[in-house]
Write a structure and sequence with these properties.
By secondary structure, the protein is α/β, with parallel strands linked by helices. The chain is about 40% helix and about 15% strand. It is built from 17 helices and 15 strands. The strands form four sheets. The protein has an eight-stranded parallel barrel with strand order 2-3-4-5-6-8-11-12, surrounded by four helices.
């Protein structure tokens, strides 16, 4: 049977059944599964995520000055095709349309970031009211549409004017001032703030490999210092947000390296936990334990970060929720070494999505939630990002049939469901991303959106995955 005739056949059968008002002949089990899917706990938050520099454009509007990403993207050879975020999705002007996209999905929440160089164009000093007003308008539009804003205060667009960038300790202090200011300005309408997005990406890719802004390749000791300043900024940011918005909940959005046991048995599960703690020692472990592990300090030796009095206490400031950005798994087995685990490299044939680094292993969702829960017992976990790039094509009649993205999402949510069903405190999921956007060094060549963006006209078109996500949200279930 061809697709067409099969579809017509289905319609005919359904119509006949409806006419006769009789149930379709399906097994009891099949009927239950089709009706309910894998249901999430009541009140589960379904959302989408974006970041300012990736969607806004309007790079020099209303007093905004350059961030390190403007400088980097405008440096020849740094981004694919020389792409920049100058215009991006033009969401700065089209935010009402983007709010409608969220509403059409039935999303209850939106994770978005505030651009530091719009608020403090020079990084510090005088705030720019025009920049702040923009975000008040965006937030009001969301609230009027029944969508709860979750605000990321730093998603990599560091004001270029800040001398030394993250190599300077002063940047952590400047960040805290900025975070406190924004929280104060939005406290009456925003109740969830994330300090910083993905320490690992902007420190290591920015200052070690040089693939991201500012594009440096520093020696280990200096990279460790950058990392230390980043988590210090987070800690000081938590304190600043609490002081400005006492009723708000504060967390972060971190992408820890997540370990999956090669075989799900006691000793390998234990190995995955140990690896998770030790391999994230510079970031998540330090934030949640308020100290660097002995293993980390030993391994780094004289390259270990210089720590000022009070730093670790600030870094360990209690948070209200833990946001996890989850994409790719690593595999681990137990061994007899002192650390008790061995990382098993991914096979060359391991499947990946359009971005090579997005290795597909949906069980990463379950282990991300379970490992962090068993190690650190956070009260609330959100998946603050998950999604994938796909080589989307527009069909002759204008559709985007991204069945591969649907496959990716369905499988990841199935494993997230397992975590929720076992009682781990995962309370929400933010899909990366609402719409195709500026994918950092990959420019516009990698599409992560539920909505296709024609980057010439800025027209948004819902993909198949948007329809799929709407149905998942409607049923509060993976279907
Ligand atoms: C995250 N890597 O970034 C970010 O938070 C988003 O801004 C981004 O668009 C999204 O994931 C998809 O890439 C990452 O190369 C970018 O390992 C690159 C890597 C990891 C995370």
């Amino acid at each position: 049977m061809t697709d067409m005739t099969r579809r017509q056949f289905g319609k005919t059968v359904a119509a006949t059944a409806a006419l006769a008002n009789v149930a379709m002949p399906v097994s009891a089990l099949g009927q239950t599964a089709a009706a309910k899917g894998l249901e999430f706990p009541q009140g589960f938050v379904w959302g989408c995520a974006t970041a300012a520099y990736q969607i806004e454009g309007a790079a020099s509007e209303d007093g905004r000055k350059p961030s390190i990403w403007d400088v980097f993207a405008h440096t020849p050879g740094k981004t694919n095709n020389g792409d920049t975020g100058d215009v991006a999705d033009d969401s700065y002007h089209l935010f009402k349309e983007d709010t409608r996209l969220l509403k059409n999905l039935g999303a209850g929440a939106y994770r978005m970031s505030v651009s530091w160089p719009r608020i403090f164009p020079d990084g510090t000093g005088q705030p720019n009211p025009m920049g702040m007003d923009h975000y008040k308008r965006v937030v009001d539009e969301l609230l009027a549409s029944g969508i709860t804003p979750y605000i990321t205060l730093f998603h990599w667009d560091l004001p270029a004017a800040l001398k030394g960038g993250w190599q300077s300790r002063d940047t952590a202090l400047a960040y805290a001032d900025y975070a406190g200011f924004v929280a104060d300005q939005l406290a009456d309408r925003v109740h969830q703030f994330m300090t910083i997005n993905e320490f690992d990406s902007f420190t290591n890719l920015g200052y070690k490999t040089g693939k991201f802004a500012p594009g440096f390749q520093l020696p280990a000791a200096e990279v460790n210092q950058v990392r230390h300043h980043a988590i210090l900024a987070h800690g000081l940011g938590v304190q600043a947000v609490r002081a400005s918005a006492p009723a708000a909940q504060v967390g972060l959005a971190e992408n820890p390296t997540v370990f999956t046991p090669v075989i799900e048995d006691e000793k390998n599960i234990e190995a995955a936990r140990r690896a998770m703690r030790e391999e994230n020692a510079a970031f998540l472990t330090a934030v949640l334990e308020g100290k660097y592990t002995e293993g980390y300090l030993e391994r780094e030796g004289e390259n270990a970060p210089r720590i000022a009095a009070g730093d670790m206490q600030a870094i360990g400031s209690p948070i209200d929720f833990l946001g996890l950005n989850v994409y790719s798994p690593y595999y681990v087995r137990a061994d007899d070494s002192r650390q008790g685990y061995e990382i098993v490299p991914r096979q060359a044939s391991h499947p990946h999505m359009a971005s090579e680094w997005i290795a597909v292993g949906p069980e990463v969702m379950y282990w991300a939630v379970r490992n962090v829960s068993e190690l650190w017992h956070p009260r609330v976990i959100y998946i603050t990002e998950n999604g994938c790039s796909a080589d989307d094509v527009v069909t002759a009649d204008g559709r985007i049939e991204d069945t591969d993205r649907v496959m990716y999402l369905r499988n990841h949510l199935t494993h997230l469901h397992r975590a929720a069903a076992e009682g781990f405190p995962v309370k929400g999921y933010f899909l990366w991303s609402l719409l195709d956007n500026f994918e950092w060094a990959d420019g516009y060549s990698k599409r992560f959106g539920l909505h296709y963006v024609d980057f010439k006209t800025k027209k948004r078109t819902a993909k198949l995955s948007a329809d799929w996500y709407r149905e998942a949200i409607r049923r509060n279930a993976v279907v």
